[in-house]
Amino acid sequence: MDDQLISLLDYEGVLTALATTPDGLVIAAAGLGGDDAEILGAAGATLFSGDGSGSEDHGMVEVGDGAVHLLRGEEFSLVVLTDSNVPHEALVDLMQESLESVAGAFR
What is the predicted pLDDT for the residue at 106? Predict the structure, then answer.
């Protein structure tokens, strides 16, 4: 599973990638660990509040000189921290592939 996340780090400007449960519990990480990963996972989960019935399954929040990108799946989410110059829509396509691989690892 970590290989799917590590492959995201090959994309220019991606600093870290986390696979989380919908409530932000980190199940795998690449490029970050420990308490920092837990904080980022929890922060990512706050991008989508409510019951998850909204039509948006991805989002981005600018933070300092970078951005936090989130892609929500049925069972898992991906949280990716990037430099500010990484285009969200292009990254979402790569994140979708990684999210499918992570979900497949648990089937």
Answer: 78
Assigned token pair, 53: 């019935």
Q: What is the pLDDT of residues 48-59, one digit of tens each?
A: 665 555 556 888
Q: Could you tell me the CATH superfamily of domain 2-48+56-105?
A: Dynein light chain 2a, cytoplasmic (3.30.450.30)
Q: Where are the domains of the chain?
A: 2-48+56-105
Element (H, E) at 19: strand 14-20
**pLDDT tens sequence across 30-81:** 999 899 999 999 988 887 665 555 556 888 889 889 999 999 988 899 999 9
Provide the whole-model pTM. 0.87
